[in-house]
Amino acid sequence: MRNKIIFYLNGKRQEVGSDHAGMMLADYLRYEKNLTGTKIVCSEGDCGACSVLRFFPNAQGTDIQNYQPINSCITVVANLDGSSLVTVDALKEKTELHVAQKAMVQCHGSQCGFCTPGFVIALTGLVEEKLAKQETSINPQEAKNCMTGNLCRCTGYKPILDAALTMDLKEAESVKARFFSEHQSEVLNEAFKTGVALESDDFSYSAPKTIKAALDYLAANPDARIVGATTDLGVVHNKRKITLTKLLSLHLIPELYEMKIKDSTVTIGARVTLTEFRHLIKDKCPELANYLDVFASPQIKNIATVVGNIANASPIGDTPPALLALDATVLINGSSEVPLSKFFLGYRKTALAAGEIITGIKFNLPKEHSDFRLYKNANRKDLDISAINLAIHVEWNNDNKETIKEITIASGGVAATPLRFIRTEDFLKKNFDIEAAVKILHSEFKPLSDVRASAAYRHILIENFFRRFFVECGGVK
Amino acid sequence: MSLPHDSAHTHVTGESEFVDDRPKLHNELFVDVFYSTRAHATIKNIDFTEVLNCPKVVAVFTGRDVHHNLWGTIFKDQPVLAVDKVQFAGEPIALIVAETMEAAQRAKQKVIIEYVDLDSVLTIDEAKKVKSFIGDRRKIERGHVDEEMKKAPHQLNGKILIQGHDHFYLESQVTIAYPLEDGQIEIHSSSQHPTETQHVVAHALGLPDKDVVCQVKRMGGGFGGKESQSAPFAAMAALAAQKLKRPVRLCLTKDDDMIMTGKRNPFENLYHVGFDNQGRILALDFELYSDGGAYADLSTSIMERAMLHSDNAYYLPNMRVTGQVCKTNHHPHTAFRGFGGPKGVATIEKVIEEIAHKLNLDPLEVRKINLYSDKDNRNVTHYGQLFKNNCLERLHTDLEKKCDYKNRRLEIKKYNQEDHHFIRGMSLTSVKFGISFTTRFLNQANALVIVHNDGSLQIATGATEMGQGVNARISQMVTSELGLSRDAARVMPTRTDKNANTSPTAASSGTDLNGAAALLAVRKIKKRLSELAFRLLDVPKEKWASKTAGIGTQEEIVLSTPNLDVNDPNEGADWNSGKATYFEMQFEDGWVFHPDHLDKKIEFKYLVLEAYLNRISLSDYSFYRIPGIEFNKLTGHGDAFLYFTQGTACTEVSLNKDTGEVKVLRCDILMDLGRPVNHDLDIGQVTGAFIQGLGWVTTENLVYNDQGYLLSHAPSTYKIPSVQDVPRTFNVELLENDENFMNVRGTKAVGEPPLLLAISAWTAINNALTYLPRYKTSYPEIKIPATNERVLRAISPEKFQVWDQ
């Protein structure tokens, strides 16, 4: 067992024990390392000012092998075990600015300068991705997508978009080539082979090597929290509503990085990030991939896991309705299974028993002769928590789409849990009568009014999306 | 090509230092602010026992520890820390000082407080009912409103509801206070107004101003939110530093910042308009009401600007506008880019749209017929100021052509007649924004320019840098006057021991005021250098002091006229280069020469050295006051502004009929900025202000609970525009204007005016809704901001009637 976590920061090896491992990375960088280029604004992963680049070389399931931006303000230092980090402070090489920095200067992409380091990191992340794919041009949509997780209040973004589009990729030197040495790779590979146990009076952290060891730890420490990327718990910690004192991380368990599609069944392990997941399914299920584009930010998706979004059991999580509609199955302890439709029991309450761990999730891709669509409404289209979301999956009896064989309808933001509209489904299977179905649909949920939407708005949105689905898929003539 | 922002190269590397980037001293402490969660209540009991028992907690301070507890920019009515009674949710009550920020934040949760609730006022309506007001009702009137209204062929009445708007500067309020020897305090603050911060700190701590220095290096955004409201937080940090004799850092979380600090004032404006068949406005009567929050702050001044901008671009022969600030139990609302302007302009622009709808005319035609014009003397504002350098007609006709308005209008009509689940709208609005503080005494500035021995310069002014590039523009003006590259000068952090009695960097005036002062200062130095260089033409080089061990082998040169008595930066200046033409010598590319003696060029840096050795001053200080501002606040009459910045924007939107979602499809902007010093920095101000304004009119929704406690207090719930909200087509151009002879170098201020152009997005949303059959004979009622939900409510009100029950 190691009693230090190991990671690289701007090419230098860091070993951190329980004294600083419980800090948020942004605080650690700014106050322990004097790397004040990284800024803190919202402490909740919504503005991107704290972005840093992270590469985790041991995520075996994926072919994404480059540095990606993450939010440092909601990432616990301990969770960076095995990662290689690069911060904005190190991008300039002697006197030479990185191409992203150069373009930002030339295009007047910075005004007050507070969000600028975060944008530079987001742009550098895009450059890394392009270099890895050996692509030489950036289109406007890619430019926008790479900075969806960054807020700027001064420029109106136009100058930053100009910067993104004028970055000279041919002149760009890869951060990976510069910072990720052979030696570093060896050290991190070696570290990955050994579990971690940090222990002090007010912070303990365990990262075992096997599922069994994790279960054993959990049995002995029922008060430990299982953490994925802390993109949610980090926020709650920063708002001082909880203290992260005892954490269990699964990041050293190789099989949890599994991701595969076999016979149209998608299986992903607990450590698979949303970005990796999107990459896996983008050709097989473009509807889901597109939906993931308006879910959270690149910074979040680059580190947060799909399973985390399920385990969190938020009633407004973005993946649960989609996965409910695809009738997904939750894999537990690597040995048992629970249908997702039976998993959400109450507000933030799941069927996961004490001492159990979600090890993965699996589902079948939409079949032929079926329509699968996802809808989301929020106050701002991108990087906003849903007011409601709706997923509908219909398998028709024939191509005329006159009768329904199977249907699943699931929604978020309308109840204490993500919700399946079972009665509406049953009705539609018997009578494909939209008007009558709408009435049943409304009777199946009773939403709240809150800061995001009124109950009335939620009712109307669900109805309108429901109707829209059948118009779009041609089920209504 | 425009030079980049002077800090751009350190912004991108993260080297630019903000207050919280300053290294922590080993004895430094952190302070967190405990605040009220009640709208209006007496504090029955407050207990800090548990707080003081928390680990790492050092001290707790309350209002009783403050020497003078009241502060306020216009009226001193607001406690630094509330004692006995709170008047809004978010009102600071106590300071918790600890060895780490986290310890202070966690200890804050242990405060035990008992309130006794009092009746509260949370809306403008309630305030009107109980006559809860701040200041008196103001009125500006011209002509015979009531008589002409009666005679008008058409009349309309209505109301516009405008919500607040959070600044969402990325860097929250932050201060570090360092106690120095002999009771002095040095403040490092993120403030638009270091002088006021100095004064508020000194007053609160019972110190003379001489013992407090405030430094502002830069801000991570200000937008008006750090004009008045950074000062009390500086006082809090300073109080703890004074009491504990240790450096103290106060750095608010985004949540606490949003909950505690005031916003753009909400407004509820009533209008009554009379007009003819062409849509020409004959009489207009506005009643403006704003929500000032619990304390006066700048609200009365903001109301004044709203009243002065209720005409916007239109000549209104008979007009009456009254304005009343309401006192409510909300955070005290404050300056925000545009000040009152956007609220006046939104109201008149809505009126124009509604007139056009009623007469079935294109709103652009109604706008054009009402524009200020030199024809028929339709060129005097309702407050009696002659409107000079009127570019409005050019702006309208040029933009109409550039954006292909007519064809697009036809397309939109056609599209909306077809069956889509989107509906489109378009609107072209303009802005005529008065530049100058309407409070006369604020229109003054001073600047210090230092030329060092090696020929490099330092400039110090009262301007504060918040991203707008005021330092870049000032250094560009100063160095170009001396024929040097901009790199030759550095603009120093703003400090009250160098530039005292300064005005806030606000009202778009930073470059106007401080640039003028700096230019006057450098010309004083240039005057001396010029005479020296001229005199040196007659002295053989080998006799120069610099060539003879600093002593000189001839008599010391004593200048005949070492002073320059010019107070107008444009006097004797060339409009193209901006340089003064009254010097004997020319300063270009680092050289100083006489056109008749090109063989005797002197390098600038050697001339500087020679000046030093001849005991000629290489530093100077200048004072500048804007001439001709004579607005009488009592009569509501006079020249309120030096000049007007003008612009137009045409915005097209699409509304989703299922969800109410608003998408801005295209925006074209044409601005008149006179003769810009830095074209690209100006363009950046335009795009930035427009998108910020777009947030105000669309997605930025402030939601409060029944105690007036802000619920949307972080970016997870308060949605400012993201990159995906930028119009897909977004064209910004500047009008060529070589007819502006006002202001330093003929430039025009740019900071605020383009924000008001975003009102075109809101009127475009209104315009889209009017294509719905249900609005054939009525006009939609939609608040600012027009959130998705509100838009859907306007599209399908009957559906909401079912579910709202």
Which tags fit this structure?
heterodimer; A: 477 residues; alpha+beta; Ubiquitin-like (UB roll); DNA polymerase, domain 1; Uridine Diphospho-n-acetylenolpyruvylglucosamine Reductase, domain 3; 4 domains; five-stranded mixed beta sheet; five-stranded antiparallel beta sheet; 32% helix; B: 805 residues; Aldehyde Oxidoreductase, domain 3; Aldehyde Oxidoreductase, domain 4; 3 domains; eight-stranded mixed beta sheet; 21 helices; 31 strands; 28% helix; 24% strand
What would you note in describing this structure?
The complex is a heterodimer of chains A (477) and B (805). Chain A has 477 residues and is of the alpha+beta class. Chain A has 4 domains: 5-89 and 179-249, Beta-grasp domain (Ubiquitin-like (UB roll)), CATH 3.10.20.30; 94-172, [2Fe-2S]-binding domain (DNA polymerase, domain 1); 254-364, Uridine Diphospho-n-acetylenolpyruvylglucosamine Reductase, domain 3 (2-Layer Sandwich); 373-472, CO dehydrogenase flavoprotein, C-terminal domain (Enolase-like, domain 1, 2-Layer Sandwich). Chain A contains 17 helices and 20 strands. Chain A has helices spanning 25-32, 99-106, 116-133, 140-146, 158-166, 175-179, 182-192, 211-220, 233-238, 274-281, 286-293, 298-301, 306-311, 319-325, 422-430, 434-443, 455-472; strands at 5-9, 12-16, 51-55, 68-71, 84-86, 196-199, 204-207, 225-227, 246-249, 259-262, 265-269, 329-332, 336-339, 344-346, 349-350, 358-364, 370-377, 388-396, 404-412, 419-420. In chain A, the strands form 5 sheets. Chain A has a 5-stranded mixed β-sheet with strand order 2-1-5-3-4. In chain A, helix 16 packs antiparallel against helix 17. The model of chain A has no long low-confidence stretch (mean pLDDT 96). Chain B has 21 helices and 31 strands. The radius of gyration of chain B is 28 Å and the shape is globular. In chain B, strand 23 (586-588) and strand 24 form a beta hairpin. Chain B starts with 7 loop residues before the first helix and ends with a helix. With 805 residues, chain B is an alpha+beta fold. In chain B, the strands form 8 sheets. Chain B has an 8-stranded mixed β-sheet with strand order 3-7-1-14-11-12-13-22, sandwiched between helices. The longest helix of chain B has 27 residues, at 510-536. In chain B, helix 9 packs parallel to helix 10 (341-359), helix 14 packs parallel to helix 15 and helix 20 (788-795) crosses helix 21 (797-804). Chain B folds into 3 domains: 8-120 and 173-251, Aldehyde Oxidoreductase, domain 3 (Alpha-Beta Complex), CATH 3.90.1170; 267-438 and 634-804, Aldehyde oxidase/xanthine dehydrogenase, molybdopterin binding domain (Aldehyde Oxidoreductase, domain 4), CATH 3.30.365.10; 444-625, 2-Layer Sandwich (Aldehyde Oxidoreductase, domain 4). Classes of the chains: A alpha+beta (477), B alpha+beta (805). Chains A and B meet through helix 2, helix 3, helix 5 and helix 17 of A and helix 1, helix 3, helix 17, helix 20 and helix 21 of B.
